[in-house]
């Protein structure tokens, strides 16, 4: 069981996408028998973007972990602050204008009849590789 505490600047909810436990063991140079083992918990989470768009911090404190092998509750260290700044990107696409030629939109143009009039609901697409 992992319980997280989130503080500061309008972080309403955080979605935990995945969690796993990593154990790394290294052989000590001074002993033939003993291994130096460390266990880490890795949490992958999604933080929703706020409406303000300002920089905020997520302070995640792993309060306690229950080991499957024992009934002991362990208190783990507090991870450092995780800064995040929500970003929104706006891209204006160049859609085919009803009267635009290839010199305007570059990638698409309307078909024209023999007199130069635009044929409705048609488009010539050019692709470059």
TrEMBL record:
One of its GO terms (cellular component) is plasma membrane. Pfam families: HAP2-GCS1. GO terms for molecular function: lipid binding. Its main location: membrane. It is a single-pass type I membrane protein. Keywords: Cell membrane, Disulfide bond, Fertilization, Lipid-binding, Membrane, Signal, Transmembrane, Transmembrane helix. It is found in: Cell membrane. Residues 35-92 form the Generative cell specific-1/HAP2 domain. InterPro entries: HAP2/GCS1, HAP2/GCS1_dom. Belongs to the HAP2/GCS1 family. This is Generative cell specific-1/HAP2 domain-containing protein. It comes from Gossypium darwinii (Darwin's cotton).
């Amino acid at each position: 069981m992992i319980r997280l505490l989130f503080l500061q600047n309008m972080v309403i909810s955080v979605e935990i996408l995945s969690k796993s436990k990593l154990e790394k063991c290294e052989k000590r140079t001074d002993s033939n028998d003993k291994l130096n083992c460390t266990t880490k918990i890795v949490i992958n989470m999604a933080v929703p973007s706020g409406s303000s768009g300002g920089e905020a911090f997520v302070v995640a404190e792993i309060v306690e972990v229950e080991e499957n092998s024992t009934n002991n509750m362990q208190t783990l260290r507090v991870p450092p602050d995780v800064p995040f700044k929500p970003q929104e990107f706006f891209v204006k696409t160049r859609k085919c204008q009803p009267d635009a030629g290839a010199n305007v939109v570059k990638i698409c143009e309307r078909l024209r009849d023999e007199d130069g009039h635009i044929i409705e609901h048609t488009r010539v697409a050019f692709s470059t590789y």
